[in-house]
Amino acid sequence: MLNSALGLFVTIQDWANEIYKKVEDQKSSRGRNQDAILAACLFIACRQEDKPRTLELENGQSVEIGTIHAGDFMRRFCSNLGMANQTVKAAQEAVGKAKQFDIRRSPISIAATVINIVTQLPDYKKALKDVSSATGVAEWMIRNSFKDLYPHLSKIVLSWYAPEEDLMHLCCP
């Protein structure tokens, strides 16, 4: 299969499967070349996981698929949730700090998880369902990403926003 030939991580394969499921659910792939759709899903997942690949087109041209970062999504996601400026600032700084750690999740998942974390700390609370809806990231993906981020919370969320003891009271959504 294509993903084994490319030597992809399991997280990339999982993300590609989730993208493919969304395409199938929207029924936008009817009558289309399924191999091309599967390949596109894999390349999108690679890009989102910061593992770029070169795509060889039928006409012989090569196209480099660039990378994206969690911070690229923060303004839009925070706006979708109607978050206060201070909470947006905390989320942006936290996602910047998260880059230091080798967290093997898609940038979109990391962004959604950081937003979920910062919205659970102050009086401003958002349900996981709302964060999932605003970001397009499945609730189970946010939960799993939280488990990866949890050991680093005190280094990711800055103390001006939430004291360390508040972070320790967070539990997995």
Structural write-up:
This protein is 58% helix and 3% strand. The chain has ten helices and two strands. It has helices spanning 2-6, 10-25, 34-48, 74-81, 85-98, 107-120, 128-135, 139-149, 153-156, 164-168; strands at residues 54-56, 62-64. The longest helix is centred in the N-terminal third of the chain and has 16 residues, at 10-25. The radius of gyration is 18 Å and the shape is elongated. 31% of the residues are buried.
Please describe the topology of this protein.
Blueprint: H1 2-6, H2 10-25, H3 34-48, E1 54-56, E2 62-64, H4 74-81, H5 85-98, H6 107-120, H7 128-135, H8 139-149, H9 153-156, H10 164-168
Antiparallel strand pairs: 1-2
Helix pairs in contact: 2-3, 4-7, 5-6, 6-7, 6-8
Number of helices: 10
| First and last CA, distance | 35 Å
Number of beta strands: 2
Q: What is the CA-based Rg, rounded?
A: 18 Å
- Class computed from helices, strands and strand pairing: mainly alpha
Estimate the strand proportion.
Answer: under 5%
List the secondary-structure elements in sequence, H or E: HHHEEHHHHHHH
